[in-house]
Amino acid sequence: MERSGEAARPAVAVMGMRCQIDIDGRGGFGWRLVAPNGRAVAVSLTSHDSHARCRTAFVRLCARHAEMGGGIQHSTEGGGWVWVVWETSGRHLAGAARTYERHATCRAAYDRFRAMLPELVGAGPELFGDSS
User: Among candidates 22, 74, 12, which has minimal Cα distance to 45?
Assistant: First the structure.
């Protein structure tokens, strides 16, 4: 027997994925997608002026994932690879939470993130750590 509301929840959110909103040193808000093991999977590459706008930006990224571009590039610090997701205007929205030593490992992480986005569409409050 199915419990109320469980059918609509994405598998990723049920598995413990979390989107945490952080405040930077200048008072801007950015999101960080964290796996159940505590490792950051992806980070926001834009800063928002409020917690609500940051959360909305993450939800929008998930909902409009098919319209976003992306790819693998050398790290700006050199010595590694990072992945980036951008909107049609070219503005970078999300990126790798770390630098990868190997292109293939970075590509696999990027592919996993892109595959995860549709599963996060409509995720419940558990994704943001809210009580349900």
Answer: 22
Answer whether CATH 2.30.29.80 is correct for domain 6-122. Answer: yes
Both tokens of 132, joined, read 């349900």
H or E element, residue 113? helix 103-120
- pLDDT for 6-58, tens place per residue? 444 444 444 778 999 999 889 999 999 999 899 999 999 999 999 999 999 99
Which residues sit opposite 44 in a β-bridge? 94
**DSSP notation for 36-61:** TTS-EEEEESS-BSSHHHHHHHHHHH
- Span 83-107, pLDDT tens digits: 999 999 999 999 999 999 999 999 9
Burial of 127 (0-12, 13-18, 19+ CB in 10 A): buried
Query: 15-33 b/e with 16+ CB inside 10 Å = b?
Result: eebbbebeeeeeeebbbbb
